[in-house]
Amino acid sequence: MKALRSALAVAVAAVLVAPAAFAGPKCTDAPRSQWLPEHAMQERITAAGYTIDKFKVSGSCYEIYGRDKARRRVEIYYDPTDGRVVKQRGDE
After folding, report:
1. Helix and strand tally (H, E) in the chain?
2. What are the extents of the domains in the chain?
3. Which pLDDT does position 20 carry in this prediction?
4. What is the mean pLDDT of each run of 10 residues along the chain (92 residues)?
5. Longest CA–CA separation in the chain, Å
6. So what's the architecture of 25-90 in CATH?
7. How far apart are CA 80 and CA 63, in angstroms?
8. Closest of 23, 30, 43, 46 to residue 80, by C-alpha
9. Which residues contact 7 (CB under 8 A, 6 or more apart)?
10. Which residues pair with residue 88 across a beta bridge?
């Protein structure tokens, strides 16, 4: 019985912590009507030298998975209202 309670406690903790671990940044509070069109944002990103493998809306951000000018993998979150980088991860 004690093992069952311990397992249940671990499962509940995992459910409560997991969404926070995978949540992306908050990029904007602006309504979607004020966002740059997706195709315009993609053009800006490629003009900056990035290759886009995947482009998506992630919460209040535009998010890409792709490669930078040096062909390193990147994951970048952009503010969809002005195109600024909010968070970036990549191969170091």
Report:
1. 2, 4
2. 25-90
3. 42
4. 55 48 82 97 97 97 97 97 94 62
5. 61
6. Roll (3.10)
7. 9
8. 30
9. none
10. 76
Distance CA 75, CA 12 (A): 30
Q: By the 8 A CB rule, do 87 and 80 touch?
A: no
This prediction's pTM: 0.73
How far CA 80 is from CA of 38, 50, 52, 61, in Å, comes to 8, 17, 16, 6
Q: Indicate the burial class of 45 (C-beta count within 10 angstroms; 0-12, 13-18, 19 or more).
A: buried
Quick count: other Cβ atoms within 10 Å of Cβ 5? 9
Q: pLDDT at position 49, please?
A: 96
Residue type for 24, please?
A: G
